[in-house]
Amino acid sequence: MKSYSNFSDVDLIILLKHDDGYAYTEIFERYNEILLRHAYRILTDKDEINDVVQDVFLTLWQKRSTIEFKVSLLSYLSISVRNRIFDLLSHKKIILKYAASFNKFLVEGYNITDDEIRERELSKIIEREIDHLPTKMKEVFLMNKKDGLSYKEIAAKLNITDQTAKQQVYKALKILKPKLDSFMSAFPFL
Known about the structure:
mainly alpha; Rna Polymerase Sigma Factor, Chain: A; 2 domains; rod-shaped
């Protein structure tokens, strides 16, 4: 059996391209520790460091027949480790951004949804109380508050005086306010 430790990097690359597993093992043994130290300068998590370096060696083996070495073997492996680390950090940044966005949704989105539900519930209660008003009072009140008509416009449409329209709205508010106040005090979270 040949002693691969005496081969140059160029020889190991040639053998590697011809599917020589021993050449691959020699490359691994020769550069694994160097690459781990290189990765440690950027990353601090030992598991991540090992994963990055192992991934570089795995890719070297998988693409052994198609890789073109334009730099030395050590430079190629070091650049590969650096690029994998940058990919990892970029991926982490995206995950952190997504997690922050998701947390924001959970906090604010929930509150918005909760507020919308409360608002709809309060609207239903108001509509129900308005429906209980006497017919003419309800009509005048809705024309003023919902349609935005002035007392004069309401009076002209219903053939009543401005003062009557104003009194109907005032009476309606006088009836609705205590009911809504009591409801709001019973359910302060609305």
